[in-house]
Amino acid sequence: MRRLLVTGAGGMLGRDLLTVLDLRRDLSVTATTRAELDITDPEAVRAAVTGHDLVINSAAWTDVDGAETQEAAATAVNGDAVAHLADACAATGARMIQVSTDYVFRGDGTAPYPEDAVPSPVNAYGRSKLAGERAVTRLLPDTGYIVRTAWLYGEHGPNFVATMLRLAGERAQLDVVDDQRGQPTWSYALAEQLVALADAALAGRAPAGSYHGTASGETTWYGLAREVFALRGLDPDRVRPTTSDRFRRPAPRPSYSVLGHERWKEAGLQPLSDWRSTLAQKLARSAAPAPEDLSDRAEHHLDVQPQ
Q1: Residue 217 burial (CB < 10 Å; 0-12/13-18/19+)?
Q2: The domain containing residue 10 runs over which residues?
Q3: Kind of pairing, strands 27-32 and 174-177?
Q4: Which of 28, 95, 132, 245 is in the most buried spot, having the most CB atoms within 10 Å?
Q5: Cα–Cα distance, 133 to 78 (Å, whole number)
């Protein structure tokens, strides 16, 4: 029986990974939260990795704005700790899947970034994640996998879709940024894709290197918000477009975060489905009733700038 180690098991993606893996009776899974495994401790990491065939690292520093003033701390988790995991995998013969981000790219493109595009991050968070990518590439050239994702939303923890559903019941009007393009990605669908990649990696079918784990298609945060409203039977015209320059954030955000998905076919896998279909699946699984339609109430405004 193959043994998998999942780090960051208490996070949004980590919890979905455990839900997917719970269906697999042919796999033995060890799950560790931040409290249970300090991935910045190389000795603890070596002990945790020993005996496993593959590691999925979903642990990360995710405070994008906080990284601007705490870059060393962010890099310790997103870069140095990833190197500890990769080094332990190299020593024990385990394969590794590292979850990374679109923020390693500059974000000023006009066509989807291919997997082999040259990284050029514009903020400290992106630099810290790129350090982790480079560690995996250096230490596990034949057995390391980097899966970049973006615009994640899911059932667990704060995220843009959850925020829209909450605010739909609190505000009559929402102003949402319309000048950032990306691919809204359901964390459960990504978890299924990561497990499929793990299967292909363990079977020797998936070449090492970078893959892009984002939904197909593209939209803006404004477009995503309108789709959330429409799918819940609310008036999408309650959502109005605005621009990023209305907000001041410590960390600059890429304006174009659309990623290409060509490498999946090399692993014998299909890319994730279109963002609209996966969003519909996610909302259909949610048991909460649709928020009350406030469109006939006194007008309220809320500028929404996602992470």
Answers
A1: middle
A2: 2-158+183-212
A3: unpaired
A4: 132
A5: 9
Other CB atoms within a 10 A radius of the CB of residue 282 amount to 20
CATH code: domain of residue 63: 3.40.50.720
pTM score: 0.94
User: Does 168 fall in a domain?
Assistant: no
C-alpha to C-alpha distance for 34 and 21, rounded to whole angstroms = 19
* 113 in active site: no
pLDDT at position 293 over 70? no
- Split into its structural domains, the chain has a count of 1
Distances (CA, A) of 215 to 39, 130, 247, 305: 29, 21, 27, 21
149 within a domain of the structure (yes/no): yes
Q: Report pLDDT digits (tens) over 66-108.
A: 999 999 999 999 999 999 999 999 999 999 999 999 999 999 9
Angle between helix 187-202 and helix 275-285 axes, rounded to 10 deg? 110
Tokens of 180: 């950032």
Q: Which tokens belong to 38? A: 């300090």
Length of the chain in residues, anyone? 307
Using CA atoms, how far apart are residues 78 and 97, in angstroms rounded to an integer? 14
At 304 the pLDDT is 47
Whole-angstrom CA distances from 157 to 5, 13, 15, 52, 274 are 22, 9, 10, 28, 23
Choose, from 103, 125, 153, 222, the residue flagged as catalytic.
125
